[in-house]
From TrEMBL:
This is Hca operon transcriptional activator. Belongs to the LysR transcriptional regulatory family. The gene is hcaR_2. Pfam families: HTH_1, LysR_substrate. It comes from Pandoraea sputorum. Keywords: DNA-binding, Transcription, Transcription regulation.
Length: 307
C-alpha cells in the first residue's frame, strides 16, 4: 500500500460514496473512462476486486468495504499533515522560543508584542526564557532560541540579525530619603550626571547586561568622572531592592519607573544615558512562527512611530 498513489485512494472513495462511476467522475472533475481505468489500476495493485459492477452502479465487495475504512484513515492523515505543515509555514502552528533580558522584559513593548502574537496564533507552543544577553545570543546561534529581546549586543553578532526597535532614556533611582530625591521642583528637575560622581553606584551585573552597563559607564566618563561602583546585582529588580535598602543609587531604563517599589524615587538625568531595545533573530530564518512574531514586532514599532 506504501506504493499506491493517494489519488487512487481518493478516486476509490468517490466511487464508493456515490456508488456510481459517472457520478464519481463528475464529483472529481475527470472523465468516466479515465476513472474506470484508475480503479482497475488500484484493484490490480492490491490484487483484489473492490467493486461489483452492477447494471446501474457499483457496489463494494467485502474486500472493498474493508479497504474503505483504511483508505479514509490514510487520506485523513495525509490531509491533516498537509494542513499542519501549511499552518506551521504560516506561523499559526508549531513552536516558538522567545528569550529576553530582565530589563527588556520590563519594557511594555515586549509583553505587548507577545500578547498580540499569542492572540493571533494561540496554537503555537510558546516558550519564554529570561537570560543574559550573551546567553541569549548563544541560544540564537545554536537554535534553542528563535527570537530574543535584548538591550544592546556587544562583540561579534555574526549570523544574528539585531534590529533596534526603540530607544529610551535612563533615569536615576535613589532611596526616597536621599537628598537627590528631594531637590529641585519637588524632585522633578533633571539631575546632572556629575551629581552622582560621589555616590555609591549599584549596577546590573555586566555579564548579564553588558550593553546597559557599558552605556552607564560611558555616560559617567563623558561627564568627566569614573563611577564608584558599590555592588553589581544579578538582576535589575535586585538592583532596585538594594537601592530601596539605602545601599546606593542606580541608573536604570526609564521603563522601570513603572515598578513602584517602596522606598525608591526616580529622577531624570541630564544628559540622560540612552538604553536601546533590540530584537534579535538568526539570519535567514524568516518563516513560520518566527516570521509571524516579527510581523507583530514591526506593527508595534509602527504604532509607536505614529504616536
Amino acid at each position: 500500500m506504501a506504493n499506491i498513489d493517494v489519488r487512487l485512494l481518493r478516486y476509490f472513495i468517490a466511487v464508493a460514496e456515490t456508488g456510481h462511476m459517472t457520478r464519481a467522475a463528475e464529483r472529481l472533475g475527470i472523465g468516466q473512462p479515465p476513472l474506470s481505468q484508475q480503479i482497475r489500476v488500484l484493484e490490480t495493485q492490491l490484487g483484489v476486486t473492490l467493486f461489483e459492477r452492477l447494471p446501474r452502479g457499483m457496489a463494494l465487495t467485502d474486500a472493498g468495504q474493508a479497504f474503505l475504512t483504511d483508505a479514509y484513515e490514510v487520506v485523513r492523515k495525509l490531509d491533516q499533515a498537509v494542513d499542519d505543515v501549511r499552518r506551521v509555514a504560516a506561523g499559526i502552528k508549531g513552536r516558538l522560543s522567545v528569550g529576553f533580558t530582565s530589563s527588556a522584559a520590563l519594557h511594555p513593548f515586549v509583553p505587548t508584542v507577545i500578547r498580540a502574537f499569542r492572540s493571533d496564533a494561540p496554537s503555537v507552543s510558546l516558550m519564554l526564557d529570561e537570560s543574559s544577553t550573551g546567553d541569549l545570543l548563544d541560544g540564537l546561534r545554536d537554535g534553542h532560541i528563535d527570537v530574543a529581546f535584548i538591550r544592546q549586543p556587544q562583540g561579534n553578532t555574526g549570523e544574528i540579525t539585531v534590529v533596534q526597535v526603540l530607544e529610551e532614556p535612563m533615569v536615576l533611582a535613589v532611596p526616597s530619603a536621599h537628598p537627590l530625591a528631594l531637590t529641585g521642583r519637588a524632585g522633578k528637575a533633571a539631575v546632572p550626571m556629575t551629581a552622582i560622581a560621589s555616590e555609591k553606584l549599584i549596577l546590573y551585573r555586566r555579564r548579564a547586561g553588558q550593553g546597559l552597563y557599558d552605556a552607564i559607564i560611558a555616560a559617567c566618563h563623558g561627564a568627566g568622572f569614573s563611577p564608584a561602583i558599590e555592588q553589581e546585582a544579578p538582576r535589575l529588580l535586585t538592583t532596585l531592592s538594594l537601592v530601596a535598602a539605602g545601599l546606593g543609587v542606580s541608573v536604570v531604563p526609564a521603563s522601570l519607573m513603572r515598578m513602584q517599589i517602596e522606598g525608591i524615587v526616580y529622577r531624570p538625568l541630564a544628559p540622560p544615558p540612552r538604553a536601546p531595545l533590540c530584537c534579535a533573530y538568526r539570519e535567514g530564518v524568516l518563516a513560520g512562527p518566527t516570521a509571524r512574531l516579527l510581523e507583530h514586532v514591526n506593527a508595534a514599532v509602527q504604532t509607536i512611530a505614529r504616536a
